[in-house]
Amino acid sequence: xxxxxxxxxxxxxxxxxxxxxxxxxxxxDCGTTKHPSRVRRVVAGEDADRFANPWMVLVLDQGxxxxxxxxxTLYFVLTSASCLMSSPKQVVLGEYNRNCTTxxxxxxxxxxxxxxxxxxxxxxxxxxxxxxxIGLIRLARKVLITDxxxxxxxxxxxxxxxxxxxxxxxxxxITDLSKxxxxxxxxxxxxxxxxxxxxxxxxxxxxxxxxxxxxxRGACSGDSGAPLTKKFHMDGGRSRTFLVGIVSYGIxxxxxxxxxxNVEHYMDWIVSTIYESNMLSSQADYIFTAN
Length: 291
Fold this sequence. Notes:
With 291 residues, the protein is α+β, with helices and mostly antiparallel strands. It is built from 5 helices and 15 strands. It comes from Drosophila yakuba. This is Peptidase S1 domain-containing protein.
C-alpha cells in the first residue's frame, strides 16, 4: 500500500472523522450483519447465509451480463475496472436468490441506476497482468440501510488485511455446474505466495495484487469485481467485515489460483475519487454521514 500523502491523510481525518478503536473507517455503520455469519466452506462453494453479506452488489449491463461489487458508502460501489468497461446501467442490492419472486425477496431488493463510473486512469484492458483493475460506481440515489443492505468496511489509515491468510469470496458467477449461480455462493480461500500465480499464470504480480486460491475452488466468470473479505475484531471486541480484495482474473478452470486487486493498495485513489465526485455533485447529503 502506498504511504498516504499529507493531503489525503488530512482529508481522511478531517472529512471522515469516523473512528473505530485505532482505525479510521470510510463509513461509520459498516461491516456488520443482522445475524452472525456461520463458518462455511463460486466453484466448489456453498450457499451463503441470507444475512451474512449485505454489502454484496449485483452489477448489470444492458445485455444482462453480471459482475459483482461491494457497497462501501451510501452512494458508492467498489468493483473491478474490467466490469465497468461494459458500461453497467443498474445495480441490485439486497439480492440473494436471483430467481426468487416472493414478496420477501422483492421487498428486500434495491435496484438503483448508475449515475457515473470511475475507472482507474492506468487500467489497460489489453494488458496481460491486468494491474489497476479497480473502479467505482456512483449511484443515482442514496442507498437505504436495512438488514439486507449495509456497507462493508474499509480502513483509510491501516492495512488491516496485510497479515491475513484466510479470506471469503462471494458471488453469483459460474459454479461447478458451468452455469451462473442463482443463490449467492460463498467460498473459503487462502493467500498464496505470489510466485504461485506467476508459475501457474506466467504473469508476474506486484504488491497491488493478491494471489489467492484453494483446492478445487475459486471465483469464476461472472464474479469479476466481487469482494474478497476478512472479518476482524476491532478495539473493543466488536467484529466487523472488511473488504480486502476484488476478483480480477485467474485460470480458466476457476479451481486453483486467482488474482485479486489489493484494495488496501488503492485507498488513496478510492478516497480522493469519492471526495472529488462529491465536490462536483449536486447531492446535498454527503456519504460520510451514514448512521
